[in-house]
Amino acid sequence: MNIFLTSSFAEVVDLFVTFTKGECSGKTVTLIPTASLAEEVNSYLIAAKDALVKAGMVIDELEVSTATQDEIVSKLERGDYIYVSGGNTFFLLQELKRSGADTLIAEHVRAGKCYVGESAGSAVLAPSIEYLQRLDDPSAAPNLDLYASLALVDFYPLPHYGNAPFEEAVEQVLIEYCNTLDLRPFSNNQAIAIAGDHIEIQTSDG
Fold this sequence. Notes:
Blueprint: E1 2-6, H1 13-19, E2 28-32, H2 43-54, E3 58-61, H3 69-78, E4 81-84, H4 89-99, H5 101-110, E5 114-118, H6 120-123, E6 156-158, H7 167-177, E7 183-185, E8 190-195, E9 198-203
Helix pairs in contact: 3-5
Keywords: Hydrolase, Protease, Serine protease
GO molecular function: serine-type peptidase activity
């Protein structure tokens, strides 16, 4: 599998370009901004889009909360990369499940398509997102009854480690779940790069 997980994509775009060996340039990325709809601030999404364009990528936006089934299928099919933005992880999972995009994304990623996640978009690949209740408000997803997630990785990404305004919440999650879950904390200037079976936390100098 080809998976690149970030806390803040704009801060590690240099690592992403290296991860793709520069092959991302000229390619189309299916960008799913859905998680950001449940948040008041979305400056990270604007920064991520700018970073993707600077990396030479063409953005094809897919809002799964409003898209038709056909749109979801065709846009995921067309894109060379799948990018899932940050925001509220619970709202994101609710909409991915409701639209069936969760299954389609998992199929594409298992078939080798590169998945890029930012914050919520990274965490949603864990087996479950229950551990994130201190970081995100579950009430943003009133129709989500199960926290079982995409399970494309067997660990639990924990974004924004040591970064404001999440320091305390992340520390609480570490204390609460360190003995039961394989947590992988990573900061805004780090990424979890997965190529095949190789998993590595990388740090950007930028």
